Amino acid sequence: MPSRAKKSKFIDRGFAYARERYGAYQVDVDAALAKLRTIPISLQCWQGDDVRGFETNTNALSGGIAVTGNYPGRARTPDELRADFETALRMVPGRHRFSLHASYGEFDGAKIDRDQIEAKHFSGWIDWAKQLGIALDFNQTCFAHPHAADGFTLAHRDEGIRDFWIEHCRRAREIGAVIGKSLGQTCITNLWVPDGFKDTPADRKGARERLLASLDAVFKKTLLAKYNLDAVEPKLFGIGAESCTVGSHEFYLGYAITRKKLLCLDAGHFHPTETISDKISSVLQYVPEILLHVSRGVRWDSDHVVTLTDDLQAIAREIVANDYTDRVHIGLDYFDASINRIAAWVIGARNVLRALLMALLEPPEIKRAEQFGDNTVRLAVQEEARGLPFGAVWDEYCAREGAPLGDAWLREICIHETEVLNKRV
Description:
The protein is α/β, with parallel strands linked by helices and 425 residues long. It has helices at 9-23, 29-36, 78-90, 123-132, 159-183, 204-218, 249-259, 277-283, 310-321, 341-360, 365-371, 375-385, 390-401, 408-419, and strands at residues 41-44, 97-101, 135-139, 187-191, 196-197, 228-232, 244-245, 262-266, 290-294, 328-332. It has 2 domains: 1-27 and 363-425, no CATH class; 40-360, Alpha-Beta Barrel (TIM Barrel). Strand 8, helix 8 and strand 9 form a beta-alpha-beta unit. The radius of gyration is 22 Å and the shape is globular. The two termini are 25 Å apart.
């Protein structure tokens, strides 16, 4: 296993060169590294177990959610999932968070339906987070349940089914508040529902009126923002909801503005030609904070592991260049069972951090040139900045944070796979 504590002379030399090169562009690399350390990423529980959760009654996935692949080693219990996440966390520089779904409670074999969940079912997660010194985020689980079998939850025509999901969502919010208070760090509770029509609906209005009324019932109780922040998440379409998603972008944008909620922008929930980077500064004109679900769609909302694409870099740049780091909460949202699940966490989280660091290292001359109307200098410096020695600064950050350098983390993951994951059956 490689040592994370030692740093070679080549890293020192590379960083010294990078500091000089960036300094020529008036970039303070040490300030950039210090700022990066303050930006947490919320890693998603559902990557570790293929969105199965730990309910006694395990239901088939629904709501446009599909996990492909059968790579060995899926976490089967809360303890296994926690251990896997701890392994991933050691590979990611900085201090980060963990995002739970309501279906991941510890129910001790009891059949607890979702409208009966309580904070006590998540006490094990809270105790674990305290030990690690991390924060938790939370999500209502409005899918993979008999009451969501026809693709509708909060917008369902049946009042009884709507009431079931309203109660579930209410309880999830209160659990989020308990988590935030217990850990002394605000919990973000995100609400997404799969409601939509496979074919052209005759009555979009009625469905959206029902969803609106249900949401107002969910959020009727005021919770202290220092403990819990509510987010609502739109979607363009899902499997079985190709023709109309009730909770569209426009619907939830209006809801977030008028009800003072966070809007969750998911990178996979829009048209393939759209990128959420352009939406960030628009939405933040009207709401105080937003939540991002950083994903990578391939042709559709397929939730691939995040790679260092132009889209990811554009998202990171919007956050950093506009000084939004305190107003934008960054979470991962993908579930890939075709590769080692722990490696998927690590690859995605490290790439988001790389993109943020690249944004923090952007030469100030780029924005200054635009302010003076000199688009020639803006373009020229943008392109020259691509060749600056970013990798040497990233290596320095990993070394300072005690995370593996380069692909050394992969060797540790392979050892964990051999010694732990491959023994799970």
